[in-house]
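in:
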């Protein structure tokens, strides 16, 4: 690792889409999941990527799809990561969960599973598939019964943001350890289908704060929602802190199923591809002095819109780079920031 040793930006986490194959084709899926790409990385190529991640000191990998469990060698890939000491979690729709998968998850030492659940049954099933809501809840219970830590991720849009209290009443009945609430980005299928994604983040943050501590699980606001509200510092992963800026290309990266490397796997556009793992090693891509400059070369003079005049702009750097791009078309201007509203 000749170039990496003294390199100022250390890779600590990675979100890796190992397949685009999925049992659903959700109306708002940002990656347009459904069918596997024809040229997805082979098993051997994936194992090489696992070795490169470990050699660079990556501490955590989140495996996503598509649907991870629709790739036949998912356990081989996940097992290679855990065997190399990388904390590994999987994000799933829960539809295909069964006892065989659960046994394998325990055997290879998966840290946790996150199940996507976007609202009450009528809303969740409308965007995914009839019966998917109940399958997701059954998956949560089965994982918990097997003593595999399980969390829930909810993507908010205009139609479901106000339904969080109703979903909360359901989740209170399940032994999850965390519930992450994030904004649905208008990309992929959401853009194609004209899904209305905009919502007011202020009541969402107030809701999270109002129920935090009333249940055994932790509620968290994701990196693309709720900057500088009075409640923010109590519901960030880093307690006591406001969001401190996008980490894409600084400490995190995304990898898609054909080996394209981005700063974040939510930056689902070719303009963010820094290189391909069939052409260069992960170290070569990561240490390229011309890569990830949207964050590595950030300066507050780049801020636009209301972010340019915000006294906190230099600190949060306009928030989530991906969400900015897909909502405003600009990297340094955030349309969801409440701007100090209470």
């Amino acid at each position: 690792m000749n170039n990496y040793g003294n390199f100022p930006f250390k890779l600590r986490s990675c979100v890796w889409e190992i397949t685009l194959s999925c049992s659903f084709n959700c109306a708002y899926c940002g990656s347009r999941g459904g069918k596997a790409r024809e040229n997805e990385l082979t098993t051997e190529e994936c194992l090489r990527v696992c070795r490169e991640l470990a050699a660079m000191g990556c501490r955590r990998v989140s495996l996503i799809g598509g649907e991870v469990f629709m790739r036949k060698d998912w356990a081989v890939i996940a097992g290679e990561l855990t065997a190399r000491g990388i904390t590994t979690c999987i994000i799933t729709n829960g539809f295909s969960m069964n006892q065989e998968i659960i046994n394998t998850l325990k055997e290879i030492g998966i840290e946790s599973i996150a199940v996507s659940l976007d609202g009450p049954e009528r809303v969740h099933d409308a965007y995914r598939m009839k019966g998917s809501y109940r399958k997701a809840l059954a998956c949560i219970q089965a994982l918990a019964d097997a003593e595999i830590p399980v969390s829930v991720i909810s993507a908010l849009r205009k139609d479901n943001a106000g339904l969080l209290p109703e979903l909360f009443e359901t989740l209170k009945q399940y032994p999850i350890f965390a519930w992450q609430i994030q904004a649905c980005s208008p990309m992929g299928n959401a853009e194609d289908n004209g899904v209305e994604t905009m919502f007011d983040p202020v009541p969402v943050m107030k809701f999270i704060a109002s129920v935090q501590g009333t249940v055994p699980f932790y509620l968290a606001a994701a990196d693309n929602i709720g900057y500088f509200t009075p409640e923010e510092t109590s519901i960030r992963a880093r307690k006591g802190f406001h969001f401190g800026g996008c980490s894409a290309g600084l400490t995190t990266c995304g990898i898609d199923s054909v080996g394209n490397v981005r700063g974040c796997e939510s930056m689902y556009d070719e303009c963010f591809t820094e290189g391909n793992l069939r052409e260069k090693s992960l170290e070569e891509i990561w240490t390229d002095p011309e890569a990830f400059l949207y964050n590595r070369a950030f300066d507050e003079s780049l801020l636009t819109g209301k972010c340019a005049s915000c006294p906190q702009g230099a600190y949060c750097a306009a928030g989530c780079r991906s969400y900015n791009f897909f909502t405003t078309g600009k990297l340094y201007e955030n349309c969801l920031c409440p701007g100090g509203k209470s």
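note: Residues 132-145 form the longest helix (14 residues).
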